[in-house]
Design brief:
The protein contains twelve helices and nine strands. With 290 residues, the chain is α/β, with parallel strands linked by helices. Strand 2 and strand 3 (76-78) form a beta hairpin. Bound molecules: ligand C2E and magnesium ion (3 copies). Residues 31-285 form the EAL domain. It is found in: Cell membrane. It comes from Telmatospirillum siberiense.
Length: 290
Amino acid sequence: QVDIALYQAKAAGRNTLRFFDPELQAAVQARAAMEATLRQGIRDNQLLLYYQPQVDGAGQSVGAEALVRWHHPDRGMVSPHEFIPLAEETGLILPLGEWVLETACSQIVAWSHQPGMAHLSLAVNVSARQFRQTDFVEKVQGVLKRTGANPQRLKLELTESMLVDNVEDIIEKMSALKRAGVSFSLDDFGTGYSSLSYLKRLPLDQLKIDQSFVRDVLTDPNDAAIARTIVALAQSLGLSVMAEGVETEAQRAFLSSHGCHHYQGYYFSRPLPVESFELFAHRSVEETIH
Ligand code: C2E
Ligand code: MG
Ligand code: MG
Ligand code: MG
């Protein structure tokens, strides 16, 4: 087959080698179509945020993670796994990310006026491409200013992979936002690779234990060891630690017995539309008091 393709390319009088792969072509077309509908979806307000509760050792809500959803007119709710990578590659992540940040900050303002909600922090995922923008700091500060959100309530989630190159630049961006009151959490921790000396230099506030370690924490001794190590590492670096993907009481109890007292996962709640999240947050506070 390769020979045939080579022959055809030569016969066509070109230097380039061309393969015709119908499957690849279909995939390319599907992506182009998806990109166009996502672009339009952003324009037509089809994006919305869900809020997944984050709770402390007493089961009280301490905050939420904002998770974007795409309400596609024909396909229904589309998972970010399906469109975030595409948005990253096409650059659509920039308007998308800014919309997420703006919406999250407006939500912080709304909660600041609601009894029992003003203390909640809101975590927002930042993509690599978004963070790499030279004016990322100014963009975030601009959104904070426009919305009037308290920066102390905003937590930005970064991942290890986006912290590898240009360390000085990264530290500078993070420090500038920290001075403004924003905090930082390292998402999916343990799945990338960061050296410990490097980790020490970053002005982080929190490590999030990736859910892949939490899933089998009770049955896989390696995962248990990793989870315990992350907790110990966070403690020795003076950072808080949050476990994500907690689905059972047994997982929570294990993590708790090893010093992790902040959790996010289906055991407590799935990501919720804002009204349901607000009910959850009120209920968890009342249950703790009574
Ligand atoms: P992530 O930031 O690590 O978010 C956690 C994901 O785990 C969420 O998936 C959440 O629904 C899911 N999850 C939470 N608890 C559990 C659990 O107990 N069990 C299981 N099996 N899953 C759980 P989701 O909402 O589908 O988001 C997937 C990823 O998409 C996120 O992973 C994040 O990387 C990305 N993402 C979501 N929203 C945004 C956004 O606004 N901007 C950017 N750049 N990325 C986003
Ligand atoms: Mg996250
Ligand atoms: Mg995560
Ligand atoms: Mg993830």
